[in-house]
Backbone:
């Protein structure tokens, strides 16, 4: 059935029952795949080592209230071209290299109408905002800031329909990096 085939020859002769001690008997009428495919990121998962900053809880208080800062001028940046996607990926990787970006947040919007598996239509990506001294002291800025762009924005909307063929090339290294918490 394919399930027993994975255990044959491990630690003993195939079929002698002395190999894997966790070997289970399966019903002869059980339907199972004839071949097993490893997880595509198996090597990355097995090699994962948490970074000290990921495990540091020194700055977290148990009763710390989480506040979300909102600003009427804070808008998302639309990423609709490969050039913009490449700039965003470069900003994230360079930010990770110089210690400015440790975390990103992702949300996927998918479409599943008339399709079994569905497909991703939109990727929402956010970068953690730095704690600013003006926000911490309660001061308001008097001038209206310019609309955010790729270099200054923190929230991005990526058109996954038009960029489907290039997302793995540009965002793949970002998503596979163990130095960036997703």
Residues:
């Amino acid at each position: 059935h394919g399930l027993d085939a994975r255990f044959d020859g491990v630690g003993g002769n195939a079929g002698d029952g002395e190999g894997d001690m966790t070997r289970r008997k399966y019903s002869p009428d059980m339907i199972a795949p004839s071949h097993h495919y490893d997880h595509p990121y198996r090597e990355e998962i097995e090699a994962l080592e948490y970074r000290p900053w990921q495990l540091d809880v020194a700055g977290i208080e148990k009763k710390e209230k989480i506040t979300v800062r909102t600003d009427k001028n804070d808008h998302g940046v639309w990423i609709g071209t490969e050039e913009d996607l490449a700039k965003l990926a470069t900003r994230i990787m360079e930010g990770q290299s110089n210690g400015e970006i440790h975390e990103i947040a992702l949300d996927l919007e998918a479409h599943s109408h008339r399709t079994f598996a569905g497909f991703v239509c939109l990727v929402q990506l956010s970068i953690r905002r730095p704690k600013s001294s003006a926000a911490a002291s309660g001061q308001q800025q008097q001038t209206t800031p310019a609309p955010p762009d790729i270099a200054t924005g923190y929230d991005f909307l990526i058109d996954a329909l038009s960029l489907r063929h290039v997302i793995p090339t540009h965002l793949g290294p970002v998503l596979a990096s163990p130095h960036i918490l997703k």
